[in-house]
Amino acid sequence: MPAPASSLPDAPQEILDDTAIDAVIDWFTVAGRDLPWRHDDTSSWSILVSEIMLQQTPVVRVLPRWLEWMHRWPTPRDLDEAPTAEVLRAWDRLGYPRRALRLKDCAHAIVTDHDGEVPRGPEALRALPGIGEYTAGAVTAFAHHGRAVVADTNIRRVLVRSVRGEASPGAAFTASERALATNVLPEDPARSVRWNQAVMELGALVCTARSPRCDACPLSSRCRWFTAGRPAQQGPPVRRQAFEGTDRQMRGRIMALLREGPASVDQVLGLADSTADDRPQRCLDSLVRDGLATLEEGTVRLP
DNA sequence: AAGACGGGGCG
DNA sequence: CGCCCAGTCTT
Question: What's the CA–C1' distance between A296 and C5, in Å?
């Protein structure tokens, strides 16, 4: 008869107890980066914008785009009223430009349904375009200072390593991972916010995917992965999607062309790698379908 | 549950 | 040149 999970010596709360939480928060106080969306005077909306931009995009690449963006469109109303083509140009090469469209739709929904204020609560946030489980939690924690599970790739990696002793989280955010994050989340809201910020930063700067700097980690002495000798991943590695030669790459090329200005269909089709490359036609169609391009009388342009 | 969806920079 | 990044939406 196995002991109940809560009494196991490696229960999440015992690995990441109050002392460990303090250690991570103290580390963050000293080593955390000074990022503009962490400043006290940052609006809820600008924090939401940063979270959308940071989806699958590193901080260093987001920083300049976010600064320009917030200067240009400081409120949801400003973005709602902006021309879509200008929004897509300002998105520049952040990637996944559908995010920019969704962000503009999100601004419209906030203006229309919430009187221009970022709504509170996971349900209301999740109902907004482009906001999923992670971003709803991040906005709740970082913009509204509320208690919420925030589970980005950095936090998931720290938890899985320190508590489970595994090298990296799986592709999906599973129910058991959600339970783990919930179990270690401090009860006090202010402390939970600080913990979320701190552990995310720890994953970004120290407990990194490629070359973790365990010598600089406040959790190393109790980290199950470190104390076990940093074992390699057990199961099959998470499958990465290719990029070279894909439709995604071609869509990116077409969007880059359109950011320069209107283009002829022939120009777009000329982006093919070979005469047998049928991607340009297919991708042009998909971009129009997504609302990222318009096609009229043989001219392609941003919407 | 699996696949689509960008792009760049580091080791 | 492979790997990874503050995920979301669709099927």
Answer: 36
Residue A241 three-state SS: coil
In terms of CATH architecture, what is A247-301?
A: Orthogonal Bundle (1.10)
Nearest residue to A185 (alpha-carbon basis) of A174, A177, A198, A196: A196
pLDDT per residue rounded down to tens, chain A (303 residues): 344 444 455 678 788 999 999 999 999 999 999 999 999 999 999 999 999 999 999 999 999 999 999 999 999 999 999 999 999 999 999 999 999 999 999 999 999 999 999 999 999 999 999 999 999 999 999 999 999 999 999 999 999 999 999 999 988 899 999 999 999 999 999 999 999 999 999 999 999 999 999 999 999 999 999 999 999 987 777 777 888 889 999 999 999 999 999 999 999 999 998 899 999 999 999 999 999 999 999 999 999
Strand, helix or coil at A82?
A: coil
The CATH code of the domain at A36-143 is: 1.10.340.30
Integer Cα distance of A150 and A146 in angstroms: 11
CATH architecture of A5-31+149-227: Orthogonal Bundle (1.10)
Q: What residue segments make up the domains of chain A, in order of their start? A: 5-31+149-227, 36-143, 247-301
In this complex, which protein residues place their C-beta within 7 A of any atom belonging to strand B? Answer: A 56-58, 60-61, 93-98, 171-172, 210-211, 239, 241, 243, 246-249, 251-253, 255-256, 286
| Protein-to-nucleotide distance from the CA of A103 to the C1' of C10, whole angstroms | 18
Q: Catalytic residues of A, which ones?
A: 51
* A123 burial type by CB count under 10 A (0-12 exposed, 13-18 middle, 19+ buried): exposed
Four-residue CA torsion sign, A226, A227, A229, A233: negative
Which nucleotide is at minimal CA–C1' distance from A242? C2
